[in-house]
Write a structure and sequence with these properties.
There is one protein chain. The chain has 2 domains: 9-67, Arc Repressor Mutant, subunit A, CATH 1.10.10; 80-245, Beta-Lactamase. 47% of the residues lie in helices and 18% in strands. It has 9 helices and 7 strands. A 5-stranded antiparallel beta sheet has the order 4-3-7-6-5, sandwiched between helices. A two-stranded antiparallel sheet has the order 1-2. α2 (30-37) crosses α3, α5 runs antiparallel to α9 and α7 (152-161) packs across α8 (167-184). The N and C termini lie far apart (49 Å).
């Protein structure tokens, strides 16, 4: 008789997938993942390779494992029960229509942030981003808006998810910006994410009082002037609050 207590192949691979996404300190290296999972390094290497081939995991340049495109798609589909992607896209279109600039919605998935909705400016000169791209939390206004409404452990998780060398040092350096974003209700980017690009972003707050997503408006600094960017904040914050109230 087979030992029913021994995990099946599929059970092992699903447990490893869960560990790679939700374990403390994720994203993990192969050695770290094997240690947390309590499995031989050779087994973990074989299973992660399979998960990468299937599209459920991806490996960063720093050799850490992050959610792959198929896992992101599943997570976004599940989160639709709380926040509709259609509503995020509606907000992006509305804000783009009001400002004439590109608008983006990003959502937290595990220890990463991804673009889930996007409306590009009709102007010939514009920022180019695509749905499914990861959002750098430490450099983007959208990332900073979300970080400003998270507890320290979740902040460090997102910064670690960006494969930064020293998340704690980065978070410490960001404290003045995050405190100001909490105080005024939105975050700013003045050519930090990309030279010549200006951005404003607001967090979408979940039922537990923590950020789950965010909205941003961005454009070339020469056209999207400081004054125009500040004028856009009221509509930006209004849409972020409206999405929160629809849950």
């Amino acid at each position: 008789m087979a030992d029913t207590k021994s995990p099946s192949y599929m059970g092992r691979i699903l447990n490893l997938l869960e560990t790679s996404v939700v374990a403390e300190g994720a994203p993990l290296t192969l050695t770290e993942l094997a240690a947390v999972a309590g499995a031989p390094l050779s087994t973990v290497s074989r299973l992660t390779a399979q998960l990468i081939e299937w599209g459920f995991l991806d490996e960063t340049d720093g050799q850490r494992f992050v959610p792959g495109r198929r896992l992101v798609a599943m997570a976004v589909a599940v989160s639709e029960h709380l926040y509709s992607n259609d509503r995020f896209q509606q907000a992006a279109r509305l804000l783009a229509g009001l400002t004439g600039e590109s608008t983006t919605a990003g959502r937290i998935v595990g220890n990463n942030m991804y673009i889930i909705a996007r409306t590009d400016s009709e102007q010939p000169l514009r920022a180019v981003s695509r749905i499914g791209e990861r959002i750098p939390p430490e450099r983007s206004a959208l990332g900073k808006a979300v970080l400003s409404h998270l507890p320290r452990a979740r902040q460090l998780g997102l910064l670690a998810g960006a494969a930064l060398e020293d998340p704690e040092a980065v978070l410490e350096a960001m404290q003045p910006e995050l405190e100001e974003a909490r105080r005024v209700g939105y975050a700013v980017d003045e050519e930090t994410y990309d030279i010549g690009l200006r951005c404003r972003a607001a967090a979408v707050i979940g039922p537990d009082g923590e950020a789950v997503a965010g909205l941003s408006i961005s454009g070339p600094a020469a056209r999207f002037t400081y004054e125009l960017a500040e004028e856009s904040v009221a509509a930006l914050c209004r849409e972020a609050a409206a999405i929160r109230n629809l849950r």
